[in-house]
Amino acid sequence: MAQIMMKAIVYTEYGSPDVLQLKEVAKPAPTDDEMLIRIQAVSVNGSDWEGLIGKPLYARIGGLRKPRHQILGSDIAGRVEMVGKNIREFQVGDEVFGELPGYHGGFAEYVCAPEKTLARKPARMTFEEAAAIPQAGVIALRGICAKGQVQPGQKVLINGAGGSAGTFAVQLAKLCGAEVTGVDNTGKLDFLSSLGADHVIDYTREDFTRNGKQYDLILDLIAHRSVFAYARALRPNGTYFFVGGAVAVLFQSLLLGPWIRIAKSKNIRPLIVPQNREDLVSIAELCEAGKVIPVIDRQYPLSEVPEALRYVGEGRHKGKVVITLESNGKT
Ligand SMILES: NC(=O)c1ccc[n+]([C@@H]2O[C@H](COP(=O)([O-])OP(=O)(O)OC[C@H]3O[C@@H](n4cnc5c(N)ncnc54)[C@H](OP(=O)(O)O)[C@@H]3O)[C@@H](O)[C@H]2O)c1
């Protein structure tokens, strides 16, 4: 029987966006525990860029020399086209959104996924808005609300505030009543203020760990300083969360964090964000209520995923970049 094909953006080696190719590949078939989803929109995260270039080292888990999975793309929104026999909560035709397990498979026309990390797309939300939320929104919700437990009046600093997760984090911290400082490059400072940041710091001109200011919570999306520098920028009993960045900082926070906690009463630790439907639904409800806005900077068609990734990799994006599938008629 002839294989049914679909379009996908494929890569077989780590590198620049030039290694990505638009190809015809076999359309996947769902197992008993999966649904086949026709993707309408998929957003780009920092993790896609890391998976493309193979840096930091954690981006090579499962594929040290070559990528283990050849299709990047984690956050999708689409329509269920087929369900495996163990799928209980969704039916053919349902509109769904969420994170794909292992952060791969989304830069394609179709993907198979289990139901546990997906949720029903809010009816009033576009596919693009829904695809913009999952990974970035859930990281921010965990970091600011669930684990950060930000209280009114607290001082919160978000490092890498103008990117995917940072944009959600700034808005959530403001919603919690915090005094928010956003750190990013020169071109994103006005954008951060427009999101509600009370203070902005241009990381190309100022090192926030050396200006004498201290915070109750630092959410670090792009860590590259020593944990001692971060500890200096924390108030007593303050918390620093490593979300992404240099592997050396991750190890430092694991190995030295407990010692700093005892010696200096400052919490330095990695923030592990499990993919889960509960947080996804919570952040989507805040978006639906208009309390948090999934800011979409640019949209690209599937064939232009390389340009979209280049734009994110060069750090020019303000908020989210979303790929709209040609099959959706919105190229
Ligand atoms: N912990 C977990 O469980 C978990 C789960 C999923 C993802 N992640 C990680 O989460 C991280 C954040 O992802 P994201 O999607 O928000 O990334 P993103 O969209 O690329 O945003 C990062 C932002 O940081 C800025 N930036 C770069 N260098 C900086 C510096 N030295 N100081 C301050 N800002 C700087 C970037 O702009 P410029 O480059 O222009 O400066 C960009 O605005 C990724 O590393 C990803 O792997 C963690």
Whole-number average pLDDT?
A: 96
Distance between the termini: 32 Å
Query: Which percent band covers the strand fraction?
Result: 25-35%
Query: So how many helices?
Result: 10
**Helix and strand run:** EEEHEEEEHHEHEHEEHEHHEHEHE
The overall strand count is 15
* Ligand types: NADP nicotinamide-adenine-dinucleotide phosphate
The coarse silhouette is globular
For the largest beta-sheet, the strand count, sense and barrel status come to: 7 strands, mixed
Content-based structural category: alpha/beta
- Contiguous low-pLDDT stretches (5 residues minimum) are none
- Rg over C-alpha atoms, rounded to the nearest angstrom: 20 Å
**Helix percentage:** 25-40%
Describe this structure in words.
It contains ten helices and 15 strands. Helices cover 27% and strands 27% of the residues. The strands form three sheets. Strands 3, 4, 5, 6, 7, 14 and 15 form a seven-stranded mixed sheet that branches. Strands 10-9-8-11-12-13 form a six-stranded parallel sheet, sandwiched between helices. Strands 1-2 form a two-stranded antiparallel ribbon. It is globular. With 331 residues, it is α/β, with parallel strands linked by helices. Bound molecules: NADP nicotinamide-adenine-dinucleotide phosphate (NAP). NADP nicotinamide-adenine-dinucleotide phosphate binds at residues 45-47, 50, 135-136, 139, 159-160, 162-166, 183-185, 203, 221-222, 224, 243-244, 271-273, 312, 315.
